[in-house]
């Protein structure tokens, strides 16, 4: 995780784009550098004061040795009076030096107070900045949680969209099924209408046959009546037997013919009855099948309507996701703008820090000059014990202040360690979030690729469904071959010249222009050629 590049966080309007661990580390480094410089200054002052104390001790030892010399010699010496006068002048000079030292101490105290105030202000500002950074980190963490929630929602939406795309594919199959069912429904309706017509025709034929059979029965009855009448007449008339026999035979033949016709009619009637029964059963079965088909068609129609509604919801969700993507792109642009602004602000702050460092260096030089003056003035007060005591007290104060500074330095080191640990934790969290964002980005790109492939497949299926005619196919092939034959430079004339060096084909006009302009390089591969390398090419 530590080897991966640090990614910048996504921020909204009004926020600052900050690299995890850059600004806080710079602040901690500046504080450490200031503390180190102060410690070095304190050490130099300590060394300087110890050297001064050693020199003063040596001078005091010399004075003590001189004091051990006999007073009589000193009193007898001619320089006693001059020494007394010099002592008086020295006392006056000492008083002036004390006054000057007091003034210098006041100035030094004021300078130290001003410096401490500046340090306090700087520390307060740094604490405020640290608190602001902590607040920003908390806001970023909350935003990261929100982004993760949005990511989960987007993944759910993607899964839903995939499922709905599957439903769309199945819905296309349902459409074909519904169309087939509607065709079958129309076909069955036509069959029902044809069967009803056949039924009506058969009923008419059955009625006609019944009428014919009734007519034949009536004719038989009439024939029987006529036979009875004829027999009576024959009996009454007393006709000869051969004529009667012939008439009986004729009547019998007619009766047999009529009976045979009646049998044929009865057989046809029975056949028609059986056909009508079968047709009625077929009609009932077809009605049942039609009812089941109508129910299935209604169910498929309802399912198709539901699928259409789901497709509409999917289109709306896709539009919302496109809007979300546009918003994310706008947020990225805003983050980049904020980043540039923060870089400019950082440059300005660095310039201000350099200016402050220059001012601090100038003040340090002034302090050094003042210290040199104070040292030159303190050299004249070597023999005085009062100054020695003051120096001892000053050393004690310096040691106390140094101890305080050491404690403060240790506290700052502890704070630095805590800040470094927090920064490491924040960096780990940021790296994890960055890796997760990359993973989701790759997932999003993969889904986009899948969607594009599905769209290409749908377009290919649509093209395959649309069957082209042979003329259109031939025209497309002819257009392709014309494009191959055309010159790649002018795209108006056919290729009729070949370059022997690179074997590229062009029209003669383009090659002549190339030679006239003294380019003499192939436009495709930029190989040099001459007029001797040009060969004509004829299309058969």
Automatic annotation (TrEMBL):
**Quick one: which pathway?**
Protein modification; protein ubiquitination
Q: Which GO BP terms apply?
A: chromatin organization; protein ubiquitination
Q: Which reaction does it catalyse?
A: S-ubiquitinyl-[E2 ubiquitin-conjugating enzyme]-L-cysteine + [acceptor protein]-L-lysine = [E2 ubiquitin-conjugating enzyme]-L-cysteine + N(6)-ubiquitinyl-[acceptor protein]-L-lysine
Instruction: Look up the domain of life of the source.
Output: Eukaryota
Coiled coil segments of this chain: 25-198, 241-373, 409-436
UniProt lists the family membership as follows: Belongs to the BRE1 family.
Q: Specify the protein name.
A: E3 ubiquitin protein ligase
Please name the taxonomic classification of the source.
Answer: Eukaryota, Sar, Alveolata, Ciliophora, Postciliodesmatophora
């Amino acid at each position: 995780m530590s080897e991966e590049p640090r990614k910048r966080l996504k921020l909204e309007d009004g926020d600052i784009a900050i690299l995890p661990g850059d600004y806080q580390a710079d602040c901690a480094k500046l504080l450490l550098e200031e503390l180190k410089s102060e410690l070095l200054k304190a050490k130099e002052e300590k060394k300087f004061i110890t050297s001064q104390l050693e020199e003063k001790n040596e001078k005091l030892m010399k004075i003590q040795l001189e004091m051990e010399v006999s007073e009589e010699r000193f009193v007898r010496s001619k320089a006693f009076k001059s020494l007394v006068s010099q002592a008086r002048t020295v006392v006056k000079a000492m008083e002036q030096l004390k006054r000057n030292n007091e003034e210098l101490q006041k100035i030094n105290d004021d300078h130290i107070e001003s410096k401490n105030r500046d340090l306090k202000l700087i520390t307060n500002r740094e604490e405020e900045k640290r608190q602001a950074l902590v607040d920003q980190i908390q806001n970023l963490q909350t935003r990261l949680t929100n982004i993760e929630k949005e990511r989960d929602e987007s993944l759910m939406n993607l899964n839903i969209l995939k499922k709905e795309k599957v439903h769309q594919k199945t819905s296309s199959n349902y459409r074909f099924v519904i169309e087939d069912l509607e065709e079958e429904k129309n076909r069955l309706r036509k069959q029902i209408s044809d069967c009803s017509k056949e039924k009506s025709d058969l009923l008419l034929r059955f009625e006609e046959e019944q009428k014919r059979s009734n007519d034949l029965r009536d004719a038989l009855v009439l024939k029987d009546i006529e036979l009875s009448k004829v027999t009576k007449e024959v009996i009454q008339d007393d006709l000869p037997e051969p004529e009667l026999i012939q008439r009986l035979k004729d009547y019998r033949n007619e009766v047999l013919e009529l009976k045979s016709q009646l049998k044929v009619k009865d057989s046809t009637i029975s056949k028609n009855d059986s056909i009508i029964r079968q047709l009625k059963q077929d009609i009932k079965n077809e009605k049942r099948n039609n009812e089941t088909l109508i129910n299935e068609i209604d169910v498929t129609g309802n399912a198709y309507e539901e699928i259409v509604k789901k497709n509409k919801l999917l289109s709306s969700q896709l539009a919302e996701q496109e809007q979300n993507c546009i918003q994310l792109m706008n947020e990225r642009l805003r983050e980049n703008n904020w980043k540039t602004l923060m870089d400019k602000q950082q440059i300005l702050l660095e310039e201000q820090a350099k200016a402050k460092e220059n001012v601090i260096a100038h003040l340090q030089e002034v302090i050094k000059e003042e210290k040199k003056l104070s040292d030159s003035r303190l050299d004249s007060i070597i023999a005085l014990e009062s100054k020695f005591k003051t120096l001892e007290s000053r050393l004690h104060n310096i040691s106390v202040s140094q101890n305080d500074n050491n404690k403060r330095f240790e506290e700052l080191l502890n704070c630095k360690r805590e800040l470094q640990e927090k920064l490491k934790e924040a960096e780990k969290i940021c790296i994890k979030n960055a890796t997760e964002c990359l993973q989701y980005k790759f997932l999003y790109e993969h889904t986009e690729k899948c969607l594009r492939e599905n769209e290409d497949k749908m377009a290919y299926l649509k093209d395959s469904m649309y069957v082209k005619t042979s003329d259109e196919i031939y025209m497309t092939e002819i257009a392709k071959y014309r494009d191959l034959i055309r010159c790649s430079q002018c795209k108006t004339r056919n290729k009729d010249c070949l370059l022997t060096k690179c074997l590229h084909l062009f029209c003669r006009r383009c090659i002549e222009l190339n030679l006239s302009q003294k380019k003499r390089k192939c436009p495709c591969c930029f190989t040099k050629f001459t007029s001797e390398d040009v060969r004509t090419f004829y299309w058969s």
